[in-house]
Design brief:
There is one protein chain. By secondary structure, the chain is an alpha/beta fold. The protein has helices at residues 5-18, 23-30, 34-42, 63-73, 84-94, 101-118, 178-192, 223-232, 243-247, 250-263, 273-287, 299-307, 390-395, 404-412, 417-430, 432-444, 451-463, 469-482, 512-515, and strands spanning 137-148, 151-162, 168-173, 199-202, 209-212, 219-221, 235-238, 269-270, 322-324, 333-336, 339-342, 353-356, 360-365, 368-374, 382-383. Helix 1 (5-18) crosses helix 3, helix 15 crosses helix 17 (451-463) and helix 17 (451-463) crosses helix 18.
Length: 543
C-alpha cells in the first residue's frame, strides 16, 4: 500500500523517537533517500513542491516584445487595447513568428496584471456595502422558459430585491418591455407595502435609459420612466455597463439565478401567466424563512424591521400602459406593435384610443371601453373576435364559412358544436345564404343574453325543429328566469356556467306555424263582402 508523504514523515518521526533508529536505518526501512529522512526529522510538515519552470522555446524570444505592447496598452483607450488574437496577428505579420493561440493566451493572461502592478495601477478589489433598512433596492430582468398552455414559451422574470433584508418580489411577463418593467415595479411596491427611501439600482435597461453619457454616471432617461419614478418618489441609480456594473447590484443578479434554479426547475406548467404569478407569491412567502449566508435572522425577520421604514405608496396610481391612437382599417382591425387586433366593425375608418399593457390591450371610444384583448407577443399575429363582424356578415353571408374569425372562434370554443348544429339545420331548410343569415342573427343574441342561456335556447329550438333567433331568444329568457337571474346582460358581464334547459320547456311562440315548418293552412280565406260598403264613401254635394 502506497503512503502519502505526510504519512511517511509521521512514521519516520515515530520510529526515530520510539525505537531510536538512525537515519541510515530509517532510510533502509522505508526505502527513501537519507535527505528525505533528515527533512522529516527537521519538520513534521513536508515542504511544498516547487512548480516546474516550463520553458517555451518559440515564445521566449518574443516575450519582451509582447511585454512592450502590453505596457503601451496602459495609456491606450480602453477599446483600442491589444487582444490575444491581435497579438498573435502582429507576431505573424511583423515578426514572421507562428505561435499557437493558446500559448500566447496563457502568457498574456498571467503577464497583463503583473505589468499593471509594476506600473503602479490601483488594485481592483471589492468594498462591503453598508445597507440601511428601508433605503436601497436592486432591480433586474432574467430569462425563464415556461410551459404555457402546452407550449414552451420564453418569458422574463422581473425581480426587485431589498438590499437590507434580502426580501425579493418576482413577476413573470411575456416581454421585458417598458410596460412589463413598470408593472413589475407597481406589483413589487404593492406587495412590499411601501417604496425604498434610498437608491434603487438598475442596469442601463432600454425601458429606463435612452442614452449612456460616455465615461460618466449621467444618463438620458426615457420621459415615461422619469414620470414614473417621480410619481413614486424613489431615486434611480444606474450601474456601469458590462461586468463591472453587475458587481454593483450583485444581490439581485444572484437572486434571479437562485429563484430560477430553486422554484422554476423543472420547467413550470401553467395555463396562464396570472396562474403562474399566483404561484410565485407562495414561493416568496416560503423564502421568508430562509437565512442568507451567515446571517442570524431570517429574511422575514429582517423585513419586519424594514417594512416600517419604507415610504408610503401614493394615493393615486400610475397608468403603466402605453397609449396609442391607431386607425381602424377596412378589415376592422388595428395594428399595434406589429400585431393586429379586431374591433367592432362600426369603427372602420375611425381613430380609437388604445392602452397597451404587458398582458392585455384595451381599446376605447372616448371614455367607453369597446374591446379588451390579451396581448400578442409574436410578430405578425392576429387576434380576431367573431362578434365584431356580425353586422358585416349579415350583408355578406357567403364570407362566413371561410373567415378567419370563424376559425379562431372554433379554436377558442366560443363557436360550439351547438352553433354548428343550428347552422346545419338552417342551411338545410333555407339554403346556404339564408341559413347563414339565420345563424348570424342568433349569434347577435350573445351581446344581450348570457352565453349559456343562448346555448340552452338553441338546443330547445332545435328540439322542435326551429332555428330562428326569436325562438332562441324566447327559450333563452325562459332558461334564465328558471335559474332565477336576469336574462339581459351587458357586454362586459361574464357568462355563468352552462345551464341545462328546463325539462318541460316548450315553444309557445305565436309564429310557430311559420318557424316550425308545419303543413300549410288550407282553410278558405274569410269572406269580407259584408265590409265592402265601408270602402264606398258618399260624395259630398257642392254647396
Amino acid at each position: 500500500m502506497s503512503l502519502t508523504k505526510e504519512e511517511i514523515y509521521h512514521r519516520i518521526r515515530h520510529d526515530s523517537w520510539r525505537e531510536g533508529l538512525s537515519v541510515r536505518a530509517l532510510s533502509r526501512k522505508y526505502g527513501v533517500h537519507r535527505r528525505l529522512v533528515r527533512e522529516a526529522l527537521a519538520s513534521p510538515v513536508p515542504r511544498p513542491r516547487r512548480p516546474p519552470v516550463r520553458r517555451s522555446p518559440r515564445l521566449d524570444p518574443l516575450k519582451k516584445t509582447i511585454d512592450d505592447w502590453l505596457r503601451s496598452d496602459l495609456e491606450a483607450p480602453r477599446k483600442q487595447r491589444h487582444t490575444v488574437r491581435r497579438i498573435v496577428s502582429r507576431l505573424e505579420e511583423e515578426l514572421g513568428a507562428e505561435v499557437p493561440y493558446s500559448t500566447v493566451r496563457d502568457y498574456v493572461s498571467a503577464r497583463r496584471p503583473q505589468i499593471a502592478a509594476e506600473a503602479g495601477a490601483p488594485a481592483d478589489g471589492f468594498i462591503v456595502w453598508h445597507n440601511r433598512p428601508g433605503a436601497d433596492a436592486e432591480v433586474d430582468f432574467g430569462e425563464v422558459w415556461v410551459n404555457l398552455a402546452g407550449t414552451l414559451t420564453r418569458c422574463y422574470l422581473f425581480a426587485l430585491r431589498l438590499a437590507y433584508s434580502g426580501k425579493a418580489v418576482h413577476r413573470i411577463s411575456a416581454s421585458c418591455g417598458q410596460q412589463a418593467f413598470l408593472e413589475g415595479h407597481v406589483h413589487a411596491f404593492s406587495v412590499l407595502g411601501g417604496i425604498p427611501a434610498g437608491q434603487v439600482r438598475f442596469d442601463n435597461l432600454t425601458p429606463a435609459v435612452t442614452k449612456v453619457v460616455f465615461r460618466s454616471r449621467s444618463r438620458e432617461e426615457n420621459p415615461r420612466w422619469t414620470a414614473f419614478h417621480q410619481h413614486y418618489g424613489f431615486l434611480p441609480f444606474y450601474c456601469e455597463p458590462g461586468l463591472r456594473g453587475a458587481h454593483e447590484k450583485g444581490g439581485v443578479e444572484g437572486q434571479v439565478g437562485y429563484f430560477r434554479r430553486n422554484y422554476l426547475t423543472p420547467v413550470p406548467q401553467a395555463d396562464s401567466l396570472e396562474e403562474l404569478n399566483t404561484w410565485l407569491l407562495g414561493f416568496e412567502r416560503k423564502e421568508d424563512a430562509r437565512r442568507i449566508g451567515l446571517r442570524i435572522r431570517t429574511i422575514g425577520q429582517d423585513f419586519t424591521h424594514e417594512a416600517g421604514l419604507l415610504m408610503p405608496l401614493p394615493d393615486e396610481g400610475f397608468e403603466t400602459g402605453l397609449t396609442l391612437t391607431p386607425r381602424v382599417d377596412r378589415y376592422s382591425m388595428i395594428t399595434v406593435k406589429m400585431c393586429r387586433y379586431s374591433v367592432p366593425a362600426r369603427f372602420i375608418g375611425h381613430k380609437i384610443r388604445v392602452v397597451l399593457r404587458s398582458t392585455e390591450l384595451i381599446a376605447y371610444d372616448g371614455r367607453t371601453e369597446i374591446v379588451r384583448h390579451p396581448r400578442l407577443t409574436g410578430r405578425g399575429e392576429d387576434r380576431i373576435v367573431l362578434d365584431h363582424y356580425l353586422e358585416v356578415l349579415l350583408r355578406k353571408p357567403g364570407a362566413f364559412a371561410g373567415s378567419e374569425a370563424l376559425d379562431q372562434a372554433r379554436a377558442n370554443g366560443s363557436f360550439t358544436s351547438t352553433h354548428e348544429a343550428l347552422w346545419a339545420a338552417a342551411k338545410t331548410a333555407l339554403g346556404d345564404i339564408e341559413g347563414t343569415k339565420a345563424l348570424v342573427k342568433v349569434l347577435l343574441l350573445h351581446r344581450h343574453l348570457q352565453h349559456a342561456d343562448v346555448i340552452a335556447g338553441i338546443r330547445s329550438a332545435l328540439a322542435v325543429g326551429s332555428f330562428t333567433h326569436d325562438v332562441v331568444a324566447l327559450e333563452a329568457r325562459k332558461v334564465a328566469e328558471a335559474g332565477g337571474r336576469s336574462p339581459t346582460v351587458t357586454a362586459n358581464t361574464p357568462s355563468p356556467e352552462p345551464a341545462a334547459p328546463a325539462p318541460d320547456s316548450q315553444v309557445t311562440s305565436l309564429t310557430v306555424r311559420r318557424v316550425a315548418q308545419l303543413p300549410a293552412d288550407n282553410r278558405p280565406p274569410p269572406a269580407l263582402d259584408a265590409w265592402d260598403h265601408l270602402l264606398r264613401v258618399p260624395r259630398k254635394e257642392p254647396s
